[in-house]
Amino acid sequence: MIDLKKAQAPVNTVTYNRSKIEEPTGNIYEAITIIAKRAGQINTEIKKELIEKLEEFATYNDSLEEIFENKEQIEVSKFYEKLPKPHALAVEEWLEEKVSYKKAK
């Protein structure tokens, strides 16, 4: 599981050195495919973690007329909104050689 609080990925758009991205595989398309798959995994992890945290503060009503603003849920949501996007986290992991992959035969 990725530690989101320690992630150093940029929140804004960044230009990367293409040769550094493709260096491990020798093929930019293969590298991007691996990074995209890792970004999907990270996105799933983040979504699961967010849902679990929001469930901790959930209040259930049978009435549709009563909608409560739960401050804890709002704060948790704001924290996750400010995090780097999954693709940025995946590129960071790729450049730090933290992603393992196997070539298909």
UniProtKB/TrEMBL annotation:
A Pfam family found in this protein is RNA_pol_Rpb6
Task: Write out the entry's keywords from A to Z.
Answer: DNA-directed RNA polymerase, Transcription
Please give the InterPro entries that the UniProt record associates with this protein. Pol_omega/Rpo6/RPB6
- What domain of life? Bacteria
- Please identify the protein, giving its name as recorded: DNA-directed RNA polymerase subunit omega
Q: What is the lineage of its organism?
A: Bacteria, Pseudomonadati, Bacteroidota, Flavobacteriia, Flavobacteriales
